[in-house]
Amino acid sequence: MEHTAELSTKNVGGTAESIPLADAAKTVDKVVAKSPFLPRVKHILTPLVVPFLLLLAWHAAVRISGTQLIPAPKEVGLMLYDFAFGGIYDDAFSKTLWLHLWKSVTRVYGGFFAAALVAIPLGLLIGRIKLIRDLLDPTLQLLRPVPVTAWLPLSMIFFGIGPNAAIFLVFLGAFYPIVFNTIFGVKAVDGRLFEAALMLGCSGSSLFRQVVFPAAIPSILNGLRLGHGFAWILIVVGEMTGVPEGLGAVIMDGRMLSRTDLVIAGMVVIGITGYTTDRLLVMLNNHLLRWSPQHHV
To answer: Could you write out the DSSP letters of every residue in 51-91?
Structure first.
């Protein structure tokens, strides 16, 4: 005898009617598929799973070890609130987040945009013109392995102790990913595109505008994202050189004062700001490359 799994019966018009479990499951799947909210909720919550687990592990590690050197997440949260709005510790760092954040943002994007303005045209020329490539590529390859932090003493000699040294370090950190990705993008352009353009009478500077640059855009945008990440990494180093304001300066002050909660708070602000601005670059990437879904991020 075969048995069919069934849900509890319901009365319809005075008669008992059974609903198989398989049919009920299909009905639920259809409801979920038609709901416009559930996919959005899943899309929002999924990236939060790992940070939430890391916070739990952090809290548990502090509780189990009993360490006084690393603050619990709650203490860092209080520090972040006071850093932004004050009212808890009322010390020199209370309500100063927006000032320090603005100073760091201006230095990051001052160096980043300067690097992009120099690196993209230079990369286009190196990738396309062999003479320029032979002249400049060996020197760039020689300088690229030198850590940007090794330039720190020279930057202080060139620009003195202040924001200009930090902007210079950000410029160096962002420059190499952008220029080398641009070179790669140009050299990867299909040669048949050049042949077709020449047959249509496209040459000289118009060849750059209509063939080389559009074909290299995916690599250029990838280089911009990499350079943007390095810019935020190096602003901390640049602002540890005696700059009075900025997130790197706050982290340095926290280290000097043994305020680990302040150090971690500064790290969290940099991480959130860097992630938010990176999402803007992703939106720009997907907008400019809407004709090429395989290059969407």
So the answer is: HHHHHHHHHHHHHHH--SSS--HHHHHHHHHHHHH-SSS-S
